[in-house]
Amino acid sequence: MSQLPSCPQCQSEYTYEDGDRYVCPECAHEWLIAGDADNHADELRVIRDANGNVLQDGDTITVIKDLKVKGSSLVVKVGTKVKNIRLVDGDHDIDCKIDGIGAMKLKSEFVKKA
């Protein structure tokens, strides 16, 4: 049996492999099996707005284009401010809540940092 590394966060010895990652069942921390610093830097993705500004969790953004809400007749108008965004992986990389509409996912190419 091969020796798996301890968790870098909580030092637990009960880690296991899941695909290309190690997982700690005690603190739920995940890291790449090839786990050196260079590979970890590639894992981090930088999300930018339409003007090239780097977005972070908790930022306030402004919509720069009318966006139709799929499945309804609502439209998110140009200039709508959205507070406290959350960045997620995927095609629609901003998760937010818009007043009057509710929870939505937006593409970063249609917003600018406020």
From TrEMBL:
Family: Belongs to the YjdM family.
Residue ranges annotated for the Protein YjdM C-terminal domain, each copy included: 47-114
Pfam families hit by this protein: YjdM, Zn_Ribbon_YjdM
Organism from which the protein derives: Methylotenera mobilis (strain JLW8 / ATCC BAA-1282 / DSM 17540)
Cross-referenced SUPFAM superfamilies: Prokaryotic SH3-related domain (SSF82057), Zinc beta-ribbon (SSF57783)
Protein name: Alkylphosphonate utilization operon protein PhnA
Membrane-spanning ranges: none
PANTHER family reported in the protein's UniProt record: PROTEIN YJDM (PTHR30305:SF3), PROTEIN YJDM-RELATED (PTHR30305)
Domain Protein YjdM N-terminal: 3-31
